[in-house]
Amino acid sequence: MEQFKYFPHTEEDVRQMLERIGVKSVDDLFADVPGEIRFRGEYELPAAMSEEEIRRRFGGLDTWPLVCFAGAGCYDHYTPALVTSLVSRSEYLTSYTPYQAEISQGTLHYIFEYQTMMARLTGMDVSNASMYDGSTATAEAMLMAVNSAKKARRVLVSATIDPDVRAVVDTYAHYHGVELQTIAADEGETSRDDLRRLLSEGGVAGVIVQTPNQFGIVEDLTGFADDTHDAKALFIVNTVPSDLALLKTPGEWGADIACGDGQSLGIPMSFGGPSVGFLCCTDKLIRKMPGRIVGQTLDSRGQRAFALTLQAREQHIRRQKATSNICSNQSLMALFVTIYLAVMGKQGLREVASRSYKSAHWLHDELVKTGRFKPLFSKPFFNEFTLQYDGDLESFYARCTEAGLLPGVMSGDGALTIAVTERRTLEEMERLIEEAKR
Fold first, then answer.
1. Which of 12, 88, 301, 361 is the most buried (most CB within 10 A)?
2. Rg value, the chain, Cα
3. What stretches of 51-184 adopt beta strand conformation (E)?
4. With b meaning 16 or more CB within 10 Å and e meaning fewer, what string describes 8-35?
5. pLDDT truncated to tens, each residue of the chain (438 aa)?
6. Which runs of consecutive H residues, i.e. helices, occur in 384-425?
7. Beta-bridge partner residues of 387
8. Is 159 helix (H, G, I), strand (E, B) or coil?
9. Which domains does the chain have, with CATH numbers?
10. Which long-range contacts (CB under 8 A, 24 or more apart) does 56-59 make?
11. 3-state secondary structure string, 25-42?
């Protein structure tokens, strides 16, 4: 039994069942089968496989048609089958916004667990109950900063954040009368000197940076929070939550608000969605936080119970009065993340992050060795990096896709941003290297 941990019955279970039916051993159950027709050899079974290996063995039914080295905010991480199986249950798919706590304890409970896990992962005090995606979560963080300021309506945004995130932030800023200014980049990182210059002009409500940034660089944010707080502004860090298993958290950087996209926590790429944004902050900002917040309390019998707290129901249903508008689907994605984190655990998250990191650095070095690529910046990175291609990048990209490879995300001027997750095998990476040598 110890060899097959996936069997549901323990040795004690088997003993009790045999005792109940009056049989001494499992072999005795086959006593009526003539010995001469019983098979007593070894079964020709293949070696044990992981869940991921089984999926690949059966024709890639759960994989992309192209081997994915693209990232830029959406990553091809492994999703345990258990997660999708549980999330697909009808009671989750049909659940609605938990306005009435007395009939929504299950939904409120998992949202509470989601908040707890995300707050711990980001190193922040509190979390809300999911946003639409990472871009809108960042835009909501910008509005939190403006709403927390007395008069300032200027927000500084690093030039190194993802262009798609910046586009959404620009749209929100335009319709809310927020002035955005860009902090210059220095060798692929946010320029601290330019940040200080802009802060010295006064009237700044918040500062938004991203790490790892759009080039995959893990930015050194030492002193950024102090500079920002000295100017009476809020420090906002956009990040990839799966990377926080090994990287310094926004809380450790001194952030007031942590935000980003939770897709890296096991949600399939699904050709672009759905996803889930996360938004965490310090205690003092909790009343400025948009979206649902679930609190833990005691019911009339003294038992643990859950309820929406620190907000009125109308903020979800009155557009002009709402701090945000969040749909029920995002609660489902929050559940997805919650189950994924529970299944993986701390050690699982660290293993995913470690394997992604090691594979990315190996592939980076091997691509540079081909002579066709060179680093765009010589900066530390995690599992995503940007290289300059010596040649016609579009032709290389087309050649890779014909060979069944999605080589990365083109970012202009011959630059290619490549992401490597724990799902990428040595054989897949070697195929990309061979294409680079051609």
1. 361
2. 26
3. 67-68, 126-127, 154-158, 179-183
4. eeeeeeeeeeeeeeeeeeeeeeeeeeee
5. 445 566 778 888 889 999 999 998 888 888 888 888 888 888 887 787 787 777 777 765 545 578 999 999 999 999 998 998 898 888 887 766 666 767 788 888 999 999 999 999 999 999 988 788 999 999 999 999 999 998 899 999 999 999 999 999 999 999 999 999 999 999 999 999 999 999 999 999 999 999 999 999 999 999 999 999 999 999 999 999 999 999 999 999 999 999 999 999 999 988 887 889 999 999 999 988 887 788 898 988 999 999 888 765 555 555 555 655 555 556 889 999 999 999 999 999 999 999 999 999 999 999 999 999 999 999 999 999 999 999 999 999 999 999 999 999 998 788 999 999 999 999 999 999 999 998
6. 393-402
7. 375, 416
8. coil
9. 51-79+350-437 (3.90.1150.10), 82-340 (3.40.640.10)
10. none
11. CCHHHHCCCCHHHCCCCC
Query: Considering only CA atoms, which of 169, 179, 245, 173 is closest in space to residue 210?
Result: 169
The widest CA-to-CA distance across the chain, in whole angstroms, is 93
Measured N-to-C along each axis, helices 426-437 and 328-369 cross at an angle, to the nearest 10 degrees, of 50
Contact (Cβ atoms closer than 8 angstroms) between residue 124 and residue 251: yes
Q: Give me 286's structure tokens.
A: 């909790």
Whether 14 and 2 have beta carbons less than 8 Å apart is answered as no
Instruction: List alpha helices for 123-267, DSSP H.
Output: 134-148, 163-176, 192-200, 224-230
Gap between the Cα atoms of 153 and 175, Å rounded:
13
**CA distance between the termini of the chain:** 52
What token pair was written down for 227? 């500079």
DSSP string for 220-242: --TTHHHHHHHTT-EEEEE--GG
